Structures are given as structure tokens and as C-alpha cells.
Amino acid sequence: MKVVNPATGEIIADLPSDTSVYVALKAEKAREAQAAWAGLPLERRLEPVRRFGRLLEEQRDRLARILVSEVGKPVAQAGNELQGMQARIDFFLENARSVMAEERKLDDPAQKLREKITHEPLGVIANISAWNYPYYVGSNVFLPALLAGNAVLYKPSEFASLTGLAIAGLLKEAGVPVAVFTPIIGDGGVGAELLRQPVDGVFFTGSYATGKRIAGAVAGRMIKVQMELGGKDPVYVCDDVDVAAAAPAVADGAFYNCGQSCCAVERVYVHEKIAQPFIEAFVATVRGFRVGDPLDPETYIGPLARNEQRAMLEGQVADALRKGARLLCGGKRIDRKGYYFEPTVLVDVNSSMDVMREESFGPIIGIQAVRDDPEAEFLMNDTEYGLTAGVYSKDRERAERILAKMRTGTVYWNCCDRVSPRLPWSGRGHSGLGTTLSTYGIQAFLQPKAWHLRGT
């Protein structure tokens, strides 16, 4: 499997893919190792995760450069992802014990009856992860899974395999047995082979289309299936905002990581009273984004991770212009080596256009003026996705009234494109099912056992 640097188009590594025989062998070894791992005292599972966190910090620069080389993420943003890992690790370490603790529900001496709940691991987990935030989205699964006593068959995206192997190496160095956390390397065909193994849970992060195929592949097996899928995340900018502050904040939410975030702002609705000054400030911000070499610390927009995404973005631009939109900046590939696409802003858009309906996952945004809050609410909910929605307003009550009507798993007031380890991360509709992060994200890797104990 060839690894390509998206900033140059050059092959930087040639990795052996796992064959069906190797995938089956790794799954068998994981099954054999899981019981012993689960049988360790919890502290013996907590300590390797602590060491993993320390290793991430010590090797941050090296790991960031690996991530830049295969995904194209600007080095400053890659460093931010690695730095942000510590908060996730700390949360899981601090909360694992209480979530996994035995719960006493009844102790009735008169009836000699006791009721309690214990928590057991699912067993062997298939973790099929994503390339855009490989540390964040991967650790949302494999860290609580390991702490809960599961073994993990970890398939990084083929676009982030070097990072996946680096993660596996650090966990091994930290003390996690190789058979308990095993990387599976390859493309979608290797992922399909992983799904054929007798695993106890499938946890996938990626597109709705792939998630739907995975769900179909394991249907009928009665195992835990969890999907963190895409979004078409809207933001509504009310007429009472400070435009000079709101426009750059929303632009950052739309274009950070070249727009390649499941919770990136993908649609903007702005009250017609401030639409013109907001759009002017927004475009000025976008024109100021530095496009360039992702290894340059000053670069804000790097290349797209996948070359084929540029054709999809060109299609969205063409569709919008054909249906009456106006292009204020960008709209085409950049004439340089690598998979670059101009930061693109479209206005006079509407919900018939692909750019306002289909996930873009790139440096492109449509901005639509609306008459009032009810129109904004309707348009924000006019989607099959349901990941996040945001409102910018000085009035908290107004914002919360609008956000309460959003059919999304996460809502934002005066912020966007934000994830916290303390809060559950979940989607509605085509944005997935199940929950990561928060204490719910630890419970996802446990199954309760009910105990009815009557003395004689």
C-alpha cells in the first residue's frame, strides 16, 4: 500500500497490507489475550494509558510531522491535536473507575435479598478509524475500550496508516500487550475482511455511505455497532451579533483543517439585517488565510488529504453557480504541486444546491440570508444529518430557544467546531448512532450484568 504526501503528490512509504490470513490470525490472538487483559486489576490497565499520554507529549514534534506528511494537516494544527489528547486521556483515567464500579441496588436483610450490577467488557472490538483527526477519533474508541478490558483490532484509515502504526508503537512501549491492541493495515478490502471476524463490537468513524455499508455487512450478528458519521453542520448568525467578532469565528469553524472535520461549519445562515457586513467581514477573513506548505508553522490552509475530493468540490461549485449562486472567492484547484483547493465562499445559495445539502468536507462554504429566526430554524433542520448546530447571538435565551429545536446531538452558542471529553459526542439521522466521550463513551464498551442474590 503506497502512502502519498498530499502536499507534493510524492510516494513517501510503501506498506505491506494485511492479508485475510493475517487479519484472521490477529483476531484469534486478540481473542486469546482479551480475557487476561480484562482480568487485570484496573490500575494495571490505567497505568499503560498514563504512560501513553506521557509518550505522546515527549514525541509530539515527531508525531506531528508524521501526521503532516500523510494527511497534509498544517503542522500547527497537527500539534494542536496532539496537545489536546491529554485532556481526553485525563478524563478517561479520572472517570473509568467510577463508571466500571459495582452498583449496589438493594440490600434487604428481611428477605435475604441483594441486587447489584457489575460491568463486563464487550470482548474484542473492531475499531475502523478516520484520517482527519486520527488521534482524537481513534482515542475516543480505543482508550475507553482498553480501560474497560476489551482487546482492540485497530484499523486506521489507509490515508493515516503511518500515524496508526505510530499509535500502536506507543501503546506497546507504554505496556499494552501487542495482541490486546493490534493494528490492521490496508484499504477498504482489508476493512471488509476485519468485519468478517468474530468480533463483539464494531466502532466506525467516517462517511455515511461507508457506515451504511458496514452496518449492512454486520446486520444480523447481534453485536454492538456504533457509527460516528458525517455532518452538514449549520450555524445561524443573529442580527444582534458583533459582526467583527462573529465573522472570523465562523470562518475558522468552516475552514480549520481545510474544512475536513465532521463538525466543521458546512452551512451559514445569517439574518438579512446584517448579511452584507457579515459577508464582507467573512470573505476578508477567508482571503487572509495563508495557503501553503503544511510544514510551515504559518500555514492555515494546507492540501486536501484526498485528491478525488477536489473533483467533488468543483462539482458543488458548478452546481451552485448553475442554480444562481455567486462566487465571492475561490472555486477551483490551485496550480501547484499537491491536492490544493482555493478557500471558497458562495452566496445567494439555497437548499436546492449540493453545497447546502451534501457534505463538502473541504474548504468551501455557502452563506444564505434569512428573514428571521423561524426561517433559520427550518433551514437548519432541513437535512438528513444531525451532528452539530450553532447560533451566534448576544441573547442567550434566544440562542437556547433556537438550539432546543435542533435535531442534532450537539449544539453551540457563540462557538462551533468544538469537542469536549466531558460531553457526549453523538449524531442523529445520517450522522450516526451511539455515543463516544463523556461517561457515556466509557459505558459504550461495557455490558451490564444484573445480580439477584437470595440467601438461605
Notes on the protein architecture:
By secondary structure, the protein is α/β, with parallel strands linked by helices. Helices cover 40% and strands 22% of the residues. It contains 14 helices and 22 strands. The strands form six sheets. A seven-stranded mixed β-sheet has the order 12-13-14-11-10-16-17, sandwiched between helices. It has a six-stranded mixed β-sheet with strand order 7-6-5-8-9-20, with helices on both faces. β6, α6 (161-174) and β7 (181-183) form a beta-alpha-beta unit. The chain is globular, with a radius of gyration of 23 Å. 49% of the residues are buried.
CA-based gyration radius: 23 Å
Average of pLDDT: 97
For the secondary structure, the number of strands is 22
Q: What does the main sheet amount to?
A: 7 strands, mixed
Alpha-beta classification: alpha/beta
Which word captures the global form? globular
User: What percent strand?
Assistant: 15-25%
Query: Termini separation (Å)?
Result: 64 Å
Number of helices: 14
Protein traits:
456 residues; 22 strands; globular; alpha/beta; 22% strand; seven-stranded mixed beta sheet; 40% helix; six-stranded mixed beta sheet; single chain
How are the secondary structure elements laid out?
Layout: E1 2-4, E2 11-14, H1 20-39, H2 42-58, H3 60-71, H4 75-100, E3 103-108, E4 113-121, E5 124-128, H5 134-147, E6 151-155, H6 161-174, E7 181-183, H7 188-195, E8 201-205, H8 208-218, E9 224-228, E10 233-237, H9 243-255, E11 265-271, H10 275-287, H11 308-322, E12 326-329, E13 344-347, E14 364-370, H12 373-381, E15 385-386, E16 388-392, H13 396-403, E17 410-413, E18 425-426, E19 428-429, E20 432-433, E21 435-436, H14 440-443, E22 446-454
Parallel strand pairs: 5-6, 5-8, 6-7, 8-9, 10-11, 10-16, 11-14, 13-14, 16-17
Antiparallel strand pairs: 1-2, 3-4, 4-22, 9-20, 12-13, 15-19, 18-21
Helix pairs in contact: 2-4, 2-6, 3-4, 3-6, 4-5, 9-10
